[in-house]
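Structure (tokenized):
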């Protein structure tokens, strides 16, 4: 049974907004029964989270009905993960899928959740939390553009207070079904970056409350911002987010914030429209972004190692330089090739020196 909301258009518009069909999804991966696919590494965590689902809605259902919904939710999440095993489950993913399942029903939700996972929240399902944190770093830039005084007031507070809300498309924070269904309608019709403008709109709406908390109490500011207001004006919030997005588009944000976002991030690949992208496109972008993350992590580890052993590395580099000079002298003779050998060895030494300082 579908859980209807006043925004019942979501039942038909949702999949179309995601670029998927409204018909029940056809089997992917060439396998008819997803239960025959290899077990996904995160299934144990899925089970734990599903047991904590359907807390706020639907209401007035028996324990048996809720247990059946949990079974459907578990099957839906695990099917998507098994058909796209590169995806990494994160705590809160079940909150998103729960809303989609209630709105669309199980047969339509498989395709919709696949598209959301690979084309809308792909950054959250990578093997590192780093891209998710990169999203949050846009928040100060949006706030500074909209209200520099408020941004300065919050400057001692890291934007991690927005993680739970943005990571789950607000499904973890909003307890009213009609409100979250309406917000999903809006978010899935817009670019992925708009979710951050929504949070910025929420912060701006609490301006007076936030100024009452001293700027030198970042813990209290963090606590306040991490909890959304209970009486949330969803329509007002959507309108304000749209206004912010139009007035301060991502490319024009201060601090060069947008340039620091990966070109493979959903924030950029949904810029304009993602409706023409396929699940295969999403998997390809996932692979490219994962490889980029791996290279960046390797580079950071290398910098730490070389910084730790920088004196030893300098000594090794000098020893290598002297050894190279010796080899070239022995091969060509002192008189005829010494100057050439030294020039070559010096070039190599300079490359080593510049590479060392570039990584330190």
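Design, position by position:
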């Amino acid at each position: 049974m579908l859980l209807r909301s006043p925004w019942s258009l979501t039942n038909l518009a949702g999949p179309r907004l995601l670029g998927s069909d409204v018909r029940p999804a056809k089997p992917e991966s060439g396998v008819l029964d997803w239960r025959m696919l290899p077990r996904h590494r995160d299934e144990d965590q899925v089970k734990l989270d599903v047991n904590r689902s359907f807390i706020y809605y639907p209401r007035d259902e028996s324990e048996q009905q809720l247990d059946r919904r949990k079974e459907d939710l578990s099957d839906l999440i695990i099917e998507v993960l098994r058909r796209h095993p590169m995806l990494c489950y994160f705590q809160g993913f079940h909150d998103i899928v729960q809303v989609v399942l209630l709105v669309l029903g199980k047969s339509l939700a498989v395709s919709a959740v696949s598209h959301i996972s690979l084309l809308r929240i792909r950054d959250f399902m990578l093997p590192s939390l780093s891209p998710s944190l990169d999203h949050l770093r846009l928040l100060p830039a949006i706030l500074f553009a909209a209200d520099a005084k408020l941004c300065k007031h919050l400057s001692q507070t890291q934007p991690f207070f927005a993680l739970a809300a943005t990571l789950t498309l607000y499904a973890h924070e909003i307890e009213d079904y009609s409100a979250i269904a309406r917000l999903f309608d809006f978010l899935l019709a817009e670019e992925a970056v708009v979710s951050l403008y929504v949070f910025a709109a929420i912060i701006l709406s609490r301006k007076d409350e936030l100024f009452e908390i001293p700027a030198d109490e970042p813990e209290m500011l963090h606590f306040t911002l991490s909890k959304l207001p209970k009486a949330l004006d969803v329509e007002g919030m959507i309108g304000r987010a749209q206004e912010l997005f139009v007035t301060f588009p991502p490319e024009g944000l201060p601090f060069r914030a947008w340039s620091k976002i990966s070109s493979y991030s959903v924030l950029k690949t949904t810029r304009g429209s993602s409706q023409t992208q396929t699940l295969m496109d999403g998997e390809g972008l996932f692979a490219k972004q994962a490889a980029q993350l791996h290279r960046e992590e390797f580079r950071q580890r290398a910098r730490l190692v070389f910084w730790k052993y920088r004196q030893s590395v300098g000594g090794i580099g000098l020893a290598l330089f002297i050894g190279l000079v010796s080899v070239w002298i022995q091969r060509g003779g002192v008189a005829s090739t010494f100057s050439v050998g030294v020039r070559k060895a010096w070039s190599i030494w300079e490359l080593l020196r510049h590479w060392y300082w570039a990584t330190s």
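Reviewer-requested clarification: Residues 1-9, 333-342 have pLDDT under 50 and may be disordered. The two ends are 59 Å apart (CA to CA).
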